[in-house]
Amino acid sequence: MDENVTLELKHISKYFGSVAANRDISLALYKGEILALLGENGSGKTTLMNMISGIYYPDEGQIFVNGKEAVIASPQDAFRYRIGMVHQHFKLVDVFTAAQNVVLGPGKKGYGVKRINSEVRAIAEKYGFELDPKKKIYDMSVSEKQTVEIVKVLYRGADILILDEPTAVLTPQETEKLFSVMRAMKADGKSIIIITHKLHEVMAISDRVAVLRKGEYIGCVETAKIGEQALTEMMVGQKVELAIERPAVKSDRPLLEIRDLCVRSDEGSRAIEDLSFFIRGGEILGVAGIAGCGQRELCEAIAGLRKAEKGGIYHEGESIMGLSPKEVAARGIAMSFIPEDRLGMGLAPSMSITDNMMLKNYQDTRFGIRPIPDREGENAFVRCAKHALNRAGAFLDRHDPFVDRKKARAEAARVIEELDVITPSTETPVRRLSGGNVQKVLLGREMLTEPNVLITAYPVRGLDINSSYLIYDILNRQKQAGTGVLFIGEDLDVMLALCDKIMVLCHGRMMGVVHADKTTKEQLGLMMAGALDLAEEKGKPMGVAKDSRIGEDETWNA
Amino acid sequence: MEVFLSSAIQFGAIFLFGCVGEILTEKSGHLNLGIPGIMCMGAAGGCFGVKLVAMGESPNGVLVLLMGILFAMLFAGALGAVYAFLTVSLRSNQNVTGLACTIFGAGFTSFFLNDVVDIADVTVAGRLSFASLNFFNAHIPGVEALGWFGNIFLGHGVLIYLAIVIAIVVAIVLKRTKAGLNLRAVGENPATADAVGINVTGYKYTATIIGAAIAGIGGLCYSLCYTSGNDSTVEVTIQIIGWLSIALVIFTMWRPAVAIGGSFVFGALYILFSYISVAPAFKPLLRLIPFVVTILVLIVTSIIGHRETQPPASLGLSYFREDR
After folding, report:
1. CA of B320 to nearest chain A CA: how many angstroms apart?
2. Which of residues 72-101 of A touch B (CB under 8 A)?
3. How far apart, in whole angstroms, are the C-alpha atoms of residue A352 and residue A348?
4. What is the pLDDT of residues B219-267, one digit of tens each?
């Protein structure tokens, strides 16, 4: 075996249920090199790295560290082999100082504030980090927190560092700083694996690139010998033809228009930057992008769940910025959002299908109190009393405290019937249904409100092929009914087949909107990786409709 | 005035035991609402331990004290261990479990002291000699000569000073030791602590059981030191003290050192009603003051919203490694 190989993976496989997250992956890391790991969403990069850092245990295959077989069953084992990983989600204690976070954990060394501060400062100086050991984490910016994470890994003596998308949360200047630190660590003999989606960063920092696609190892090349185009092809692969229909519908005027929208993420960084686009009635607009590049924040901002920082959201030419989710829904904007888990937002897992139907329209019930009609020849006093009674009746009618279970059950039955939900009864708790059926219930309920804009994020995540096709069919039916559909997707092949237009996001910025039948997978891949920016090339503001309805009722100020 | 301040310090010490015990528990991320019951258990255990060695004419004073403290800690620690097993290992709801512990602890104490240990017999029939109870209130001889200073600050039994020593020790452990740092990390962010190899379950168990044992001494302190064994329904008052101790944790913003001063303030507020003359109807209102003060502190700290004055971030949440 090569002397310079510090870490070697041999025939590693990992299965989650019947799905192979990694299949037969063999990979080598040399001493003092920076290896970039490239791949689309769900290509198994993070899973692979989690096996090296002890979070998962491989189902098949072996890991060798410095030529000897290593059994890595926990993060502590990984540290014993001098492997450290910096996760995307920082694991830091907010009320502690940087130094306290770094020294946390069982260790023989004692605890003296002065000593740990100087130790941490020494590591920071050695590699050129800018870090104040006494600063509390809650006072820190995202990039400072990341620095603490890296110093923590170094303090614990790691020789192999794994960075999971470290640049996703950084500004270009901070990224440059991180890269210079990485070069200093490389010069010190450390080996680094960096997961990234941005091609230009791969070109800038790495010595070699390993590419994964759908859990499989595609190849490893020296960065200097390959171009961005060739890397993209390795990453996205050949186009797969899918038998998804795309019915032609004459599209309407814009229903939903977004202008210069800026939204912040939970961490406080800009998740969406100056985004403008529009959805017409009768079209499906796909949103493609690497996971976590602002899709979630965009959906939540439109649905009124998240405050937008600036910009405008217009529904049929009318601003809906700052409205509550209830008011937004009242205008015909429905959202089906499956963020992380299948049950997602909007369904209560332990409640029955009927109850879940009521969650949305419990306010629609009416007592059925009718006003007393006026009659001729009444005196003023009676008329006045009648008027007061009618007012009170109308108020009561609007505030019916009872729920209409019968109607909800009928609705549940209708959804089950129309969408082929497989369930023992309408009273079955939603959590007992399979993933596809849960999704159908959620979509079905949204359909019942007859929305004219439907926002759906990852609607087929975790579903089998048949259920997925049923969902596509539902979306197409909506489109034919004149609804504007915003489809946040993952699989480019599906989006190319289903959507009419595809908007590509790259870290909150729009890289362009392309017609699905006129684009290629490679083009989308380049745009997602930030290597191709069509929004700027055309020289005119993209995402503004020619027949915009903004300004019909009110003047829109830039 | 001297009597009032002296009593305030004595009563404050009882709060201090409960408060410091609860702070230690909460620092591990567990909100133990069983503290009132656990303090009752301390009273039950303490009386039982004392009775084991306090028979006869001339019991050994040091032994009586040690047995009292030991059994108070054992009984309270046992209920704390039950709470820890339910909430840490079985991940049951902390509030529900805590309330169940309180109900159990109070009920058990009532039964145990009246029917098993027979505390009434202990005091009335004099089988437990007054001499042995005096050990709890024995103070340094000759402090009366120091005037008001001696009476207020030096004229107390050993338990009162033990409370202060424990509070200081816990403060130092939390702030200045690696174990304290790790414990706080467990309470703030157990996933982070777990990832760096801290034994999260071990820390939670240790903090909960030791915390309960400390609180248990408070029960002993009330039943044999403050009332000298004359209260035959200790579980009623101790429950009130227990709830106030939990309020005191919030009042002191999770700081054992602050709790020393805070507990004496609470002690003074709690006994205030019997030292000032108001219409009898207003006396219950006066007893509300500690609770009102706690609410005010909560309002103020919430408005300021400073991170340092907030409870441990994962307080009340169960930790399960496979949850991602």
Report:
1. 14
2. 75-76, 79, 91-96, 100
3. 8
4. 999 988 888 777 778 889 999 999 999 999 988 989 999 999 999 999 9
